[in-house]
């Protein structure tokens, strides 16, 4: 820039001098115009070059910074700041409703999501008061909900386009739990084996009517907080817990071989019985009365037993 202005100054100084010397000679004028044009062009090229060369590194730096920023937003996946997580849990736990999880139940799930390798695949049975919370806590991951109320699932998806919800038709009844568990035990080497693609399963407890691509996902965290109801003709959570157990053991991909499975309302007998049967005591890492936390490992494809140790529960086969 400095050179540029000095060459301009030179031109202005030259101008009257040449005019004085040979203003009569048109050739001189032509020569001057040519020279001026040449100098102007050279100056222009030089200026452009120095502008480009001086600005190129900073432009590249900016582009790189933007690319890095968008990459970190897309896939690098910084977890939610701790205080944001705590705030979300606070407001969820203190909402004016009886249909909610306590802070003590929310916290272990939030912690598992925080530690989950990104991007985390989070599957939830039951659309509840916490639905938006789960989606928010799993900020960079995939969060999918399965609910027995198709109208509510459609409503939630419409109200909150960021929510991915599927409706499922449960065929079970809570009062038939004993028979169902006995049947699964009998078929643990065929239809109801612990490692399989549930899409093709005829097991009575398998949820096999979700979209095909659902079964290709390796779910890292699964929460069973549905279906609703604990009366005898309510569907019960047998299918949800069985399905969670099979999905966890049938993980394929290169991600974590572990799956965190949480069972809410674990204080109630059906949840304990089904968890003992399909998630197994040996995998129970913590419980606080209302919430059971299991960590399941991927299993050998030919396995025909859910638990290594025999289940301590006797209620399973009692009905047959
Ligand atoms: C909580 O909800 C109930 C019923 O919806 C209402 O009567 C009550 O005033 C609410 N309490 C607070 C503190 O908002
Ligand atoms: C599972 O069983 C099939 C057939 O019975 C066999 O070919 C396969 O090698 C077995 N896989 C493992 C990992 O044992």
From TrEMBL:
It is a single-pass membrane protein. Its main location: Golgi. GO terms for cellular component: Golgi membrane. It is found in: Golgi apparatus membrane. Keywords: Membrane, Transmembrane, Transmembrane helix. It comes from the Eukaryota. InterPro entries: IRX15/GXM/AGM. The chain crosses the membrane at residues 27-46. Pfam families: IRX15_IRX15L_GXM (PF21729). One of its GO terms (biological process) is xylan biosynthetic process. This is Polysaccharide biosynthesis domain-containing protein.
């Amino acid at each position: 820039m400095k050179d540029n202005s000095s060459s301009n100054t030179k031109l202005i100084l030259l101008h009257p001098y040449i005019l004085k010397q040979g203003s009569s000679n048109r050739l001189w004028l032509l020569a001057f115009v040519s020279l001026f044009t040449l100098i102007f062009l050279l100056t222009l090229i030089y200026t452009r070059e120095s502008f480009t060369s001086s600005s190129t590194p900073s432009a590249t730096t900016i582009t790189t910074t933007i690319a890095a920023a968008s990459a970190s937003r897309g896939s690098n996946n910084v977890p939610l700041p701790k205080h944001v997580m705590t705030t979300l849990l606070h407001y969820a736990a203190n909402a004016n409703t009886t249909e909610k999880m306590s802070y003590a139940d929310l916290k272990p799930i939030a912690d598992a999501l925080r530690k989950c390798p990104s991007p985390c695949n989070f599957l939830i049975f039951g659309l509840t008061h916490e639905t938006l919370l789960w989606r928010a806590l799993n900020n960079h991951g995939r969060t999918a909900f399965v609910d027995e109320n198709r109208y509510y699932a459609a409503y939630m998806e419409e109200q909150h386009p960021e929510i991915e919800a599927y409706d499922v038709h449960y065929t079970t009844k809570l009062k038939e739990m004993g028979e169902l568990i006995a049947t699964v035990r009998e078929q643990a080497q065929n239809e109801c084996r612990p490692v399989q693609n549930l899409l093709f399963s005829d097991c009575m407890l398998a949820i096999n009517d979700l979209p095909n691509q659902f079964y290709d996902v390796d779910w890292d965290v699964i929460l069973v907080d549905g279906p609703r109801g604990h009366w005898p003709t309510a569907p019960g959570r047998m299918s949800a817990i069985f399905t969670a157990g099979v999905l966890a053991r049938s993980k394929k991909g290169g991600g974590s071989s572990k799956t965190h499975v949480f069972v809410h309302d674990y204080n109630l007998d059906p949840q304990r019985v089904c968890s003992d049967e399909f998630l197994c005591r040996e995998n129970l890492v913590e419980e606080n009365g209302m919430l059971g936390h299991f960590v399941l490992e991927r299993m050998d494809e030919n396995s025909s037993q859910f638990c290594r140790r025999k289940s301590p529960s006797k209620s399973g086969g009692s009905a047959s």
